[in-house]
Amino acid sequence: MIKIKKNVAQAAIMLAILAGATVAPLAGVQVNADTVNTYVPGNKISKVYAKTNIDEFADADLTQKVGTIKVNKAAQIKSVVDRGADNAPVLALTNGHYITANKDMVVASTIDEAKYFITNPKIIGVKKATNVHEDHNFKTVTGKLKAGDVLHVKGIAWSNGGTPRLELQDGGFMTAAKSTGSKVGKKISNYWTVSLGSAKIVKNSFIYKNQNFKKNQRVKKLKKGTKIKIKGLKWSNGGYPRFKVAGGYLTTNKKNTVVASAGSNKVNSYIISNYFGKHAKIVKKIDKRFPKNKLRRGLGKPEGVVVHETANPNSTLKNEVKYMKAHYKNAFVHTFVNGSTIENIANTNYLAWGAGYQANQRFIQFEQVRVHSKKNFAKEINNAAYYSAYILKEYGLKPSLAKKNKTGTLWSHNDVSKWLGGTTHTDPVAYWKASGKKWFGTNYTMKDFYKLVKAYYDAM
């Protein structure tokens, strides 16, 4: 049999097996499924990318090393070549050298490099809303990202189909398409990366025609003290976020130009300056043991959110979740929150047993675990506000404080006790008051919390 025909036949078998077909071996070609599923089919590709640093050889037996192809670098493929008695193929390069065809080390791809991040950008700014996925093949969505989110990237991961993904430091994978993410500029911490509802100018500034801020494209001057409505966020070509406003774009520089606000409360101001937009991701760990009782009138849709706190100064989120799963027949809530975690343990389409009959049939409920530092209290409130806004947005509800007439979408357990009944608890009033006084010298109330929730809701 002529050598090239053998290789073409071998590649055809590989493609067929990869497609799930049962293939009878051709005479003179001994290829088994294990070998085929381990190697890239060479007749389908003209280019591969290195998943890790791989050696380049002068011979098809891969014994005479002549160089290294670094991770995520491309290699142009001429053909697939049989390496020996086991018929394990290698890839012949257009430069006359050879590399492994092992799919753990190389990936076949036909992408347009100009449209994707091929090397790790390290920090990415989200240009438009997108999903976070469990793995690099995008089979399961585990979270959502909004325009303006800034994320640290662990590295590049390749899908089985040859598309690069960004592996995130906080877990999960997102698209590596440059149309969705932007490599950020230097000192990004000096800039707002969220689209708040409004901003106040603290130093004379300008509105520009587009987000790239050329001097000859100034549209309007804004004087110190001017308040302006923010419509959205857009990234410049240089990797800096800009506020979209009426008539153009405005810098998001924190120190020199604008200050975004969620009210004058010291807790909120501290959160806005340090943590807003840096909330924890919602981790879903739904326990199937929890009952699936319908919300009132069988709507399948909640009418708001109830905020709780555990009232246990010595508990941890892990222990609280463990205890609740073991005693869910007595009481349970949908989600737990602390300074670093938002863990959803019960399906929010069904009611929980945490605040009495009237509230249970109406609201999604979450518990805050007590924390013991200024930083963690601020981060916990930030996470709680984000989660509340997320739930309201998810179910098409607008933020509004609980009222005596039993309306409103944002309730404390104390509000439920006062206006719906079926419970006598007053949380999180005492916990918020004591924590606010201790670390910020001020009270913290549901009215203050509402402003932070509204800021997150408007930014979504």
Give the tags.
about 450 residues; alpha+beta; six-stranded mixed β-sheet; five-stranded antiparallel β-sheet
Any chance you could write out the topology, listing elements then pairs?
Layout: H1 3-18, H2 33-36, E1 47-50, E2 54-57, E3 65-69, E4 74-82, E5 89-93, E6 98-100, E7 106-108, E8 123-126, E9 130-133, E10 141-145, E11 150-158, E12 164-168, E13 173-175, E14 181-183, E15 198-201, E16 205-208, E17 218-222, E18 227-229, E19 232-235, E20 241-245, E21 248-251, E22 258-260, H3 266-274, E23 282-284, E24 304-309, H4 317-326, E25 335-337, E26 342-344, H5 357-360, E27 363-368, H6 374-394, E28 410-412, H7 413-419, H8 429-440, H9 446-459
Parallel strand pairs: 23-26, 24-27, 24-28, 25-27
Antiparallel strand pairs: 1-4, 1-7, 2-3, 4-5, 5-6, 8-11, 8-14, 9-10, 11-12, 12-13, 15-18, 15-22, 16-17, 19-20, 20-21, 25-26
Helix pairs in contact: 3-6, 6-9
Account of the protein in words:
The chain is an alpha+beta fold and 460 residues long. The protein has helices spanning 3-18, 33-36, 266-274, 317-326, 357-360, 374-394, 413-419, 429-440, 446-459, and strands spanning 47-50, 54-57, 65-69, 74-82, 89-93, 98-100, 106-108, 123-126, 130-133, 141-145, 150-158, 164-168, 173-175, 181-183, 198-201, 205-208, 218-222, 227-229, 232-235, 241-245, 248-251, 258-260, 282-284, 304-309, 335-337, 342-344, 363-368, 410-412. The strands form 8 sheets. The protein has a 6-stranded mixed beta sheet, sandwiched between helices. A hairpin with a 4-residue loop joins strand 25 and strand 26 (342-344). 39% of the residues are buried.
